[in-house]
Write a structure and sequence with these properties.
Length: about 525
């Protein structure tokens, strides 16, 4: 039985067509995956027929026989409440911050007219999606949960009113490899138990390979190819699909040839970081305990682990941009002061590149001003002409022409924005880059190009890299060594190839298995 059918779908921004002649159908219990790079029209295709974007649509989109295209918002809201559930990419922004999990789940439960659920029903709903301590979580606010826990809450809310169609828009892209596998397995189990039709949006072919029944590949708003998942992945007909497959890093790819490291650049020992416990509870929660790491000139070191393992907290403490209770950090054998006492000369040595490229750029500034900003603080001896020259050279190094200097972040793609962020990081001539999930928000094609750029900068500039990642395959492409974190501690470390080939700790074994 067909639950959702799309025919000749076209989506417009004004008079400009963004999606053209897309069609597919989803049966009860079936999963159809929309795959493509950033800007391919995936999210527009899945959300616009339901009135969840400001774009205009023509063609046909029928949910259990009801036409969506051309319906007023009031009618669409009723159809969404009765028959559709939605899981969005960023669970924290999709949840209401001032309401408890129980209140939000109850609201989702009642949207189709059901009576208010009791505590037992809400607890059972959270337990069904695998959330630990479900009764306790009912009283928590979203900020108290990890990314994976929040995503489970979103799934529980999406299916609370027993929809016929579940629309999942990039539901795993912000999660680590272990959680990604758990979320996909959960969605597969739920659709089979409930007979849900699942429309899954992703830029990651590898993550949907074992879960989708059929795949529709989109490129620039058009269908490149579609078909049974196993057949399409085994023998893709389109060059674009082959490029998506080739751009996905794999642990069984040939080992990369990495430059030889030099002398020790940074050495950290006995690092401990804690934070005040939230709410009424007294004391402090330990985020990192007794951690040590070292990085040599031109060396790339990966910090990997699950969400909440302490990777970013440790890296920020070591780079002196985050707090630390105690511990020593030496730079070329000389102790670095605390973060509040770092001088511009020392601050210049370590520069960060963050996960969300657009959010890390000031939307009011032009690219030239964004890239030049560190120079005002870290290289105050430079005049305006010297700063402009450095900015242009930095943009050239990240393969952006000078025309980008006058643009603002809102007109940049994700990959272009991340290149601007890298230009800002290298403009003051650092010796170490801190890459905090610098490619996880990008599609595989763009992420591959950014990794190639970082690889080239590592070779041409002799940069050392501290790479925080939940993607072992991406880390393998750049990194000489891997440190694995779990619950605030480094549980295993060693050369990259040895860690991947013979993981010793159970956490490492799960990460490798989830990345294979």
């Amino acid at each position: 039985m067909t639950v959702y059918a799309v025919e000749r779908l076209r989506i417009f921004h004004g008079e400009t067509p963004l999606v053209q002649d897309v069609g597919f159908a989803i049966a009860r219990g079936e999963c159809v995956a929309l795959i493509g790079g950033s800007g391919s029209g995936k999210s527009l295709t899945c959300l616009t027929p339901f009135g969840l974007t400001p774009m205009r649509a023509t063609g046909s989109a029928r949910l259990i026989g009801e036409e969506l295209i051309g319906r007023p918002e009031r009618a669409l809201a009723g159809i969404r409440a009765r028959a559709a559930g939605f899981i969005f990419q960023q669970p924290l922004t999709a949840l209401t911050p001032h309401l408890t999990i129980g209140a939000q789940l109850a609201e989702a439960w009642m949207q189709a007219g059901a009576p208010r659920p009791g505590r037992g029903e809400l607890t059972a709903a959270l337990a069904r999606v695998g959330l630990d301590r479900p009764e306790e979580r009912l009283h928590h606010h979203p900020h108290r949960l990890s990314g994976g826990q929040r995503q489970r809450v979103l799934i529980a809310m999406a299916i609370a009113h027993r929809p016929r169609l579940l629309v999942a828009d990039e539901p795993t892209s912000a999660l680590d490899a272990i959680l990604r596998g758990e979320m996909m397995a959960l969605l597969t189990r739920l659709r089979r138990e409930e007979g849900l039709a699942l429309l899954l949006v992703s830029h990651d072919l590898a993550s949907v390979a074992d879960h989708a029944d059929r795949i529709v590949v989109l490129n620039q708003g058009r269908v490149e190819e579609s078909g049974a998942a196993a057949q399409l992945l085994a023998a893709p007909a389109s060059a674009y699909t082959r490029a998506l497959l080739a751009a996905t890093p794999r642990l069984d790819d040939p080992a990369p040839a990495l430059p030889a490291p030099g002398e020790t650049l940074l050495a950290a020992r006995d690092v401990r970081v804690s934070f005040p416990r939230p709410g009424w509870r007294r004391g402090r929660a330990v985020a990192v305990e007794n951690a040590a790491l070292s990085i040599a000139e031109g060396e790339a070191v990966a910090l990997v682990g699950g969400s909440g393992s302490g990777k970013s907290t440790l890296a920020r403490a070591v780079a002196r941009i985050g707090p630390a209770d105690h511990g020593t950090v030496d730079w070329r054998g000389t102790p670095l002061p605390s973060r509040t006492r770092m001088t511009p000369l020392l601050r210049r040595l370590i520069q960060p590149v963050f996960q969300d490229p657009v959010a890390s750029l000031d939307p009011r500034w032009q690219v030239a001003d964004i890239v030049a900003e560190p120079l005002h603080h870290l290289r105050p001896e430079l005049d305006a002409a010297a700063r402009r020259d450095r900015v242009m050279r930095a943009l050239g190094e990240v393969e952006l022409d000078t025309g980008y200097a006058d643009r603002r972040p809102n007109v940049l793609s994700g990959g272009q924005a991340q290149r601007v962020a890298i230009a800002r990081a290298i403009v003051a001539d650092p010796e170490l880059l801190l890459l905090d999930e610098a490619t996880s928000a990008l599609d595989v094609l763009v992420a591959g190009r950014v990794l190639a750029l970082l690889e080239r900068l590592q070779r041409t500039r002799g940069l050392a890299l501290l790479m925080i990642s939940h993607d072992l395959a991406a880390a393998r492409r750049l990194c000489h060594r891997i440190l694995v974190m779990d619950d605030g501690r480094i549980v295993e470390e060693g050369p990259t190839e040895r860690i991947i080939a013979a993981p010793a700790h159970p956490v490492t074994q799960r990460l490798v298995a989830a990345s294979t």
